[in-house]
């Protein structure tokens, strides 16, 4: 009897293993897209059927097998790369509106930029360029490490010399010759600002403005399930100069102020900082879907302004007979437990600069009531509004008051 | 009828209609309500400026202008339809015909009366209010702000003339009241529904089927297609994309004027056909 139980048990296990579900993984596109300023990464899960890319910009796409899970905080699917992350080999096919199919092979790539000027230095390098650029990065990194090492040695030597001199001065005093030959403080190397990704495999995709169809083919040239997407390449609708504006007490919260039919309202007691920037305007739905392809909101006709890079050549702002020049500022936190900070001006080029900008103190510019930024935007300085709320609200009832007066006068006439 | 005599009758009749309306409190409440909408928005903006030290805006009068346009187009359409249906139901219209008044005189007088009311409440009063606010706070009265008021006034005028067409067409005048009401609710509702659906209807639980996709698609389609037929959607988009002062705004104004003329001719034709 016991044997029969054991046989049945083993049989059941075998049956379960025969009919048990095999773990199925999901196919997703992992995308490194260019957003006009930098490269960001996102995924395009199987249920997202449409994706957006900036026209004529280079992007890296790769088809991967992973496990997807739903993240309810952001209402989107995320990839569990630790469970499964394998690149699906094959060819990426892109069909344009004329029906011409372009097949793209995978290549190694790296993305690199200089942190000090990301907008003008960012680049994506493919194939052999990727290897040479990555080698350049490692060389620069090594050189920086060597420079830091040498600086530490120089600093050590400097400290030793200073200590020796101090010792000597305490025991015998220092001669004039020794004082003039006081060791120079070693200069630290400039911060390492080059940033690079590792060498990855990707499929380069750069298409002009238009609508496309895209899918992934395996090595047998068969279209892989869930890989077909419609692709929209879009461009900026317009470009303009402008400023990032922030108030003295909120220097970490700048607000975009593109010079295009916008008005900045402020009042006499405020002090604002203006940082010159270049802006591009995009169709809002397209841009937001580029950033998050799983976006589920509806398409509308709105537009969005995106700050691209600092406008370094813009150094001054002319307002009536005032000229505000750009300068550096340092933010110093208040010492002690009390929260707060002060902003101090610093000469241009000072390494301690927290930010650069044009300071507009409207108390000092008391004769200015309104000015334009050069294009279509303007700044309006409002008067003090205390006591206005009651007055403005009362004015709204003026028509009713007029009606009452009219009625009363009629009544008087009738009585007479 | 000679044109001079006709014009005289129109003037007398319009004056009479206007006087009747000005003696009633509803128009004055409407005017106060519109100014109140402007006041609430302006005060809120000024408070925000003093709290945050500055704001950057595409136009602080966009939303109040759109709201008073919706409010007034409904009320003026209703008032005019009620006036015409009352004149027909209580046979007042027939008494006009005994004098030097024909259907064209009557219709023109109605149009002039409500156009003047519309002009006063949607354009003149808010403009005076904007200038007052300029002297008090320094918020400038820009060409775009004036253009927005003009756009609002034109939309109200078009919807009011559309109401007149329905009145002239329908057998029972009061039925047109419901048709116009439902139509206006529907056209304004599309915009607000689109705003709500695009902002709030996102999937909250794990599901491969996006249950709100249907609503998003339907409202997106209605919103996009209503752009070509609904003056509300067109005005909303022109304002929201900051094109009130551009060529687009001017073209929209021109189109509305042409539509107004067509609607007036249509209303007159339908009315004269109805009276025969």
UniProtKB/TrEMBL annotation, chain A:
Organism per entry: bioreactor metagenome
Segments passing through the bilayer: 385-406
Keywords, sorted A to Z: Membrane, Transmembrane, Transmembrane helix
Entry protein name: Uncharacterized protein
Automatic annotation (TrEMBL), chain B:
Organism the protein comes from: bioreactor metagenome
Ranges that cross the membrane: 27-46, 58-81, 116-137, 149-167, 179-202, 250-267
Protein name: ABC-2 type transporter domain-containing protein
Keywords: Membrane, Transmembrane, Transmembrane helix
